[in-house]
Amino acid sequence: MIAxxxxxxxxxxxxxxxxxxxxxxxxxxxxxxxxQQMTLLGLTNEKTLYNWKSQPEKAKLTRDxxxxxxxxxxxxxxxxxxxxxxALADQWLATPNDNPLFNGTAPxxxxxxxxxxxxxxxxxxxxxxxxxx
Length: 133
Fold this sequence. Notes:
The chain is an all-alpha fold.
């Protein structure tokens, strides 16, 4: 994984010009607000979010961004596999979940804690549900 990340970092704008639009399309399907998108991407500046949306090729590709994007793509893929009905897949994150991992809250609440590890926890949970462990 480290070697792959290094290769992606070297490719820079050619990766971000396709990666970020895919991430923003997922965010749109999930019905996320700008503030929620910023949290998931680890951003603190709203202007950066809108610059990335309008000019993704100019976004600075970092290990943090790659890691976050990887988890988001993995969560999306797992939901598509587990819940083939697009509407159910898109709603799952916002639906309260009685699994002890979520403690009756929506998985999105866990994601919005803002740490990369929160993305990893949800991704790992979904992978386990798919039998991918």
